[in-house]
Input
Amino acid sequence: MDGTFTFPVATSEHIGFAKDNLAAKPLVYMEMEDRVLLASEETSLRTVVPDLNVPVEEPPPFSIGAWSVTGEKAVYKVPNRAVI
Output
């Protein structure tokens, strides 16, 4: 893919995201024992989960991430020359 992008992806077994190398499009997420929430800004997440003990994370540029329904997590920084 070329250009600036951040997009979520989901199947019945996984939820995830992909970000371009500039990370111009925002994405933040919260992980809890029973769920993962994705949003474009922290304010949206705090509206749903106001507990400040739950951290909000921002993935690095040029990264992909996924969570499975069984709780497995994988977030990877993509090598600069890789093609998504």
Remarks:
- The CA atoms of residues 13 and 69 lie 5 Å apart.
